[in-house]
User: Fold Cytochrome P450 from Hermetia illucens.
Amino acid sequence: MFLVTLGLLLAAIFIIHQYIYGYWKRRGIPYIKPHLIYGNLKGFVNRNESFALSAANLYYKSEEPAVGVYLFFRPAILIRDADLAKKVLVTDFQNFYDRGVHSNEESSPVSANLFSLEGKNWKDLRANLTPTFTSGKLKKMMPEIELVGNRMEEYLENLIESGHSIIDMDEVATKYTNDVIVSIFFGLDVDSFKDNANIFAQCRDQINSKDFMINLTMATVFLYPKLFDFLKLYRFSNKFMNMMGDIIQKTIQNREENNIQRNDFLQMLMQLQKTGELEGEENGLSPISRKKVKLTMNQIVAQTLLFFIAGSDTTAITIACCLHELTQNEEVMQKLKEDINKALEKHNGVICYDSIQEMEYLDMVIQEAARKYPALPVLNRKCTKPFKIPNSDIVIEEDTQLIISILGFHRDPKYFPDPMKFEPERFREGSERYNANAYIPFGDGPRTCIGMRQAKISAKVAVVRLLTKFQLTALEKREIVFDNYATSLKAKGGIKLKISKNIH
Assistant:
């Protein structure tokens, strides 16, 4: 009897397995053969690679423009063609309106953020937040960025004077971006260079830790939103929501009681909370095209927490990897220094918004760093309306999850000749050597990263300050190896460089 029961159980498992993993075969769509239970994420589950690397490795396992994969038991389509990606993100955006990540404001208030929201809720919030990142408002935030830059310089000078000549620039960049984000988005003054145990640094380190439950929580947000609710993993995110909520509410209360005004993101969110619109908007949207949305306190907390999580590590990655490549490529380093000096001479040596904007080669360097090391290496989209892939019989059905490996695109020689070579000149205006549709470090279309300009200016200020004040040298000739955890790319063992003061 036991053997019969066991046989029936095994037969049932086999049938269910064949049915679940036969999803793409029944639809006549090419697919990558999955593993039992793991689907196509065996390397990720076994912690041999991060999800970003898993997606990139799947990208290179096929030649199809769109290929079926399995995120455990969940079928998804991996987009491998740059023109098709452009359609998904931009041209046919109405068919792929949502990201398909966890979004349930009732159980998890933090998911009421711009990244996760869907449909009309996302559209209205996006329209109201867009004016917060205009060039004029970013220019007003420069003093906060400069203050953090000064502290970074002092920190490195002290380390050098105390005999430290080899420094992990990934750690330095993380401290810098942490404080810039906290100042701009939370309106608070923290100094991670003196106190790296501040509450924001603790929050960041927990999110990026190797703890299994934290990694599971972050993964299910993207891969299995329904499982996120079923397992009540929102309890983890709600802990940060409550912690940050308390800080923000006290900050807002202090500003209102003492009539304090700052040129930062939180001040603008306070305006949106009161009136649903910003004073002196520069977004170009007419009142008819944008519905006023008065933000709730939960929505304010959700946005600030989003920009802290999304902006801190991603910008740090760009800075640290950029410095790594500059020390690996002395000719590029020298060209960049000449570009920086030329612009600073016109501005009496002052590093400001205008002088940074005139550094054309710096812009190319940052673009190339963002290509080779995309801070957001994977994009999610959900099909919201059936879509037929041009020149094929494949129809993407409603609710199908789509995966776009930015890392895969950015390192594909079909789109970027000699992709492992750090070549800023490929982005020189008028002589571009790449496929523009394949270059999407901040996403593309209506859901492109809203904080893109803030991230770029913060990264540029850091690089300029470091190169004008210090001499950076590589310890060895090597490529960066990525760690096997974290949502974004993380250099295994950090990015250690030899550093000394510049002699003028």
User: Anything to note?
Assistant: The two ends are 87 Å apart (CA to CA). Residues 31-501 form a domain with the Cytochrome p450 fold (CATH 1.10.630.10). The chain has one domain: 31-501. Residues 283-288 have pLDDT under 50 and may be disordered.
